[in-house]
Specification:
Length: 107
């Protein structure tokens, strides 16, 4: 089952850029609008990468189960958690746990 992104908020015709962004000046609204477009593009890439990771994880799980092994390799998951924690601190662990959950049991 593919993962889905959340729908993007659309602006009502009566709202201007400062209403949508919360900025107090048109200049700040322009900066925020541009930065949000970049964030949306990054989020699309991140979602795509997680979907790709889930597909690769399913291949690994299938091979492991077919050979008589378990679906999940806890020592490997601990390595992944450690790598995310090292790179991103404590929130990285929570992020990695969510990602691992999304990638488990999809077969």
């Amino acid at each position: 089952m593919p993962l889905r992104g959340t729908p993007r908020q659309t602006r009502s015709p009566s709202m201007n850029a400062t209403d949508v962004t919360g900025a107090r000046t048109p200049e700040a609204a322009d900066v925020i609008t541009g930065a949000r477009e970049r964030i949306d593009a990054l989020d699309d890439r991140i979602i795509g990468l997680i979907q790709e990771r889930a597909a690769v994880s399913a291949v690994i799980q299938d091979a492991r189960i077919s050979s008589g092994g378990r679906r999940v390799n806890l020592s490997r998951e601990m390595e992944v958690l450690g790598r995310y924690r090292e790179a991103l601190g404590k929130p990285g662990t929570a992020l990695a746990m969510t990602m691992l959950e999304l990638c488990r049991g999809r077969i």
